[in-house]
From TrEMBL:
Residues 57-69 have a biased composition (Low complexity). Transmembrane segments: none annotated. InterPro entries: TPR-like_helical_dom_sf, Znf_RING/FYVE/PHD. SUPFAM superfamilies: RING/U-box, TPR-like. This is Uncharacterized protein. The lineage of its organism: Eukaryota, Fungi, Fungi incertae sedis, Mucoromycota, Glomeromycotina. Residues 53-76 are annotated as: Disordered.
């Protein structure tokens, strides 16, 4: 790197004047190195394409950038990855292809065939895949018939396999019912009651299969079964340990959805329409908010304020469980984003749809986390178990549907919304091929695990982490360490019971996950070589490893405005798919994209809020140097007198936007980390000795922070201690090599 060579030369003589220049350059280099690091390690990562275009070579390319937002292109390279198995299942499902060969072309024709084999896992899976593709359209008769058939499918035995089958069965049922929700179909009262009453049957199957797993298939089933019936307390305890909570969740979701559909589908359609319109406005898909010519830029278009609006206007005719309002809003948002990004018109790009969806996911979970005190780990487990038993009983109560017509709010498991949102994240991982999305899901799962108030949330967080590990076992190889750290935390807090509990849960979820994978790999043609073998991690030989690429870097990169070079919360995405901080969009003198110079038209700007993600990852961004503290330099102009002509991409941006004077040092970020504010305050007041000692103190907490070293260097420069300034700069460089 040419600019680095230059740094070396500066070692000889003229240190004094050089240090000023150095500070500027080093900030640039730090940024640059992060980008280069990502580029080196992830040549085939799709979402880095934009960055590569900017960074490759030093000539700034202009015009002609087309961003590929179509799914799947890069996936074809990793022919043996788990991701491919997922992909094969979703886009090349063996059974669906076979049906096509046999002349069943339309989605209706396919589902009419699949309906005949609903007790077989592979057909069930194919059916789910068929319905999850929102491009496929179905006639209302097929939808209703399928719903009925799924309710009538017999479960005549209980085994380990039937747990996996039950989950898949209920997921398929949910998928079909969601289709009905989003289409103008009114179910007959008979069918709706029939589906509702089937929930009791499924709850009973759930209970029995759970017992089978508990007891173990090696033992005499009947004998143990009787034994447990005599010790009913013990039995409950046993069930809790190896319980597939996904099934509990799906049953509650089905119950409440049927509830909300009751009698008043027109109202339900109205709710969908309103949320869709609000979302369109908030994202500027219906142009109006974001106009670069005027001053109509949003200040309060955050997701939270939008949600408050929706919540206030949303009510169901019959009472639903309290979590359900937010849950339904989330499902409607997700549905719209998927449809807009997958439809042939491509109203929005897949990248944009995922970024927005992730922000909503974070935003909802943030609300859940506020209510969960993180030091009292698992103290609500007992309460959870109580409620859980009640929910099962209420589902099993045959007349429940009529009873609830009386108008009482149905009982739901604590933190159902939290669980559901994590389930959506898991679903998104399957659809996505973007590392930033995986990374955001990773932090989501870790945060949820750390704050988990019960086994319920622990279960889902573990499952999500295992899922990520299977998508990319190199990148997510740290999850075992995360599990260790979590158990450590439990033992440090003397939560022996919880610790034991968690270990059992972890083993169970791993076994369960393994079973699910079997279903998946048996469904593709590639599973031929043997059932167990294809699950072996080692067999997934990837041609191109994405190892070592720091997940946080990828996330930060995605929401980094090219003008101030750091992650930002209020962004917009342009037609060329480049992003820009809204505050900088306002300031652009020439309305062209700073990256590719494409002309910016009002109608092409999409609003991209990332407030929750930014807020929750702020500390991480800061510690890793993606966000630098703001320092007002008294002589910031002078910093750009130097002839760093080889930093052309920076030059380009700086010259283009000279009115913003976006020096890396003099930037003002709104939300400063509180621990750093004092340092900055002291610097601004020119109390450099005080700032120095504070800075060194904080360096003990963040020993690897290079941003802190850069500040220290700056402080020493102000103290005229060029030796020390130079020393810290070198350390900073070293940390980033
Ligand atoms: Zn552009």
């Amino acid at each position: 790197m040419a600019s680095f060579q230059k740094l070396k030369c500066l070692n000889n003589g003229r240190k004094r004047s050089a240090v000023n220049e150095l500070i500027t350059m080093i900030m640039m280099i730090i940024k640059h190195q992060i980008d280069c690091f990502i580029n080196l390690n992830g040549g085939d990562i799709k979402q880095l394409e934009i960055k590569e275009e900017n960074m490759e070579g030093s000539s700034s390319q202009s015009g002609g950038t087309s961003t590929n937002t179509a799914p799947g292109n890069s996936e074809n390279n990793n022919s043996l990855s788990y991701k491919t198995i997922l992909y094969e299942n979703m886009y090349n499902n063996r059974i669906l292809l076979k049906l096509e060969e046999d002349g069943f072309i339309t989605p209706d024709e396919k589902s009419k065939e699949l309906i005949k084999e609903l007790s077989e896992i592979k057909y069930l899976y194919a059916l789910k895949v068929l319905f999850e593709n929102l491009q496929n359209e179905f006639s209302s008769q097929v939808l209703a018939n399928l719903l009925e058939a799924l309710v009538d499918t017999p479960f005549n035995h209980y085994s380990k396999e039937s747990v996996a089958r039950l989950e898949l069965h209920l997921r398929t049922l949910v998928t079909v019912l969601e289709r009905i929700c989003f289409s103008p179909i009114v179910l007959s009262k008979e069918l709706r009651d029939k589906v509702y009453n089937s929930l009791a049957k499924f709850a009973e199957i759930h209970r029995k299969t759970t017992q089978v797993i508990e007891i173990g298939l090696d033992n005499n089933f009947r004998r143990n079964f009787n034994q447990f019936n005599q010790q009913s307390n013990n039995q409950d305890e046993q069930i809790i340990k190896k319980r597939n909570y996904n099934i509990d969740f799906l049953l509650i979701h089905l119950r409440d959805t049927l509830h909300s559909l009751r009698d008043d589908e027109a109202r339900f359609q109205e709710i969908i329409r309103r949320i869709r319109d609000l979302l369109k406005t908030a994202l500027n898909i219906t142009p109006g908010i974001l106009t670069i010519a005027g001053i109509n830029l949003p200040n309060d278009c955050s997701i939270l304020s939008m949600l408050t609006q929706i919540r206030q206007s949303l009510s169901f005719k019959y009472p639903v469980a309290s979590y359900y309002v937010d849950w339904r809003i989330m499902l409607i948002i997700q549905n719209n984003l998927f449809i807009w990004s997958e439809s042939s018109e491509k109203i929005i790009s897949k990248k944009f749809s995922e970024l927005v969806l992730m922000e909503y996911i974070w935003s909802f979970l943030e609300g859940e986390w506020v209510n969960a005190a993180d030091k009292s780990i698992l103290d609500s487990q007992t309460k959870f178990d109580e409620v859980s038993n009640k929910v099962v009983k209420s589902l099993k109560n045959a007349g429940g549907f009529l009873n609830e017509l009386a108008g009482n709010e149905p009982i739901a498991l604590p933190h159902t919304l939290w669980f559901g949102i994590l389930d959506l994240a898991q679903n998104l991982i399957q659809r996505s091929s973007r590392i930033a999305t995986y990374g955001l899901c990773y932090y989501l799962a870790i945060e949820s695990l750390n704050k988990a108030p019960s086994n319920f949330i622990q279960f889902k967080s573990i499952e999500l982490l295992l899922h990520l590990y299977n998508v990319d076992n190199k990148m997510f190889s740290m999850i075992e360490i995360d599990f260790d750290q979590y158990t450590q935390k439990l033992s440090e807090n003397n939560l022996e019971d919880s610790l034991e509990n968690f270990r059992n849960l972890l083993t169970f979820v791993k076994e369960k996950y393994h079973e699910d994978l079997k279903i998946l790999s048996n469904n593709t043609g590639k599973g031929k070589e043997g059932k167990g073998k294809s699950l072996n991690q080692n067999s997934y030989l990837k041609k191109k490893q994405t190892s070592n690429s720091n997940i946080l870097d990828v996330i930060a990169d995605e929401i980094t405005c090219p003008i101030n070079s750091e992650p930002t919360d209020q962004l917009c995405i342009l037609k060329c798919q480049h992003i820009l901080a809204i505050s900088n969009l306002k300031k652009l003198k020439q309305k062209i994209c700073p990256n590719c110079r494409e002309k910016i038209e009002d109608n092409d700007i999409r609003y991209l809020p990332q407030n929750s993600i930014y807020k929750n990852l702020y500390t991480k961004f800061f510690e890793s140097g993606h966000i630098l503290p703001s320092i007002e330099l008294e002589n910031s102009d002078q910093l750009y007198d130097s002839d760093d002509s080889d930093n052309s991409e920076f030059d380009f941006i700086l010259i283009k936007n000279s009115n913003i004077s976006s020096s890396l040092l003099s930037r003002i970020t709104k939300k400063q980390h509180p621990t750093y504010q004092n340092i900055i305050k002291e610097i601004n007041e020119k109390h450099y000795e005080k700032a120095e000692s504070l800075c060194k103190e904080f360096l003990n907490f963040f020993p690897k922070s290079y941003s802190l070293r850069c500040i220290l260097a700056y402080i020493y420069r102000c103290l005229n201690n060029y030796e020390q300034a130079h020393l810290y700069l070198e350390e900073a460089i070293y940390l980033n090599l």
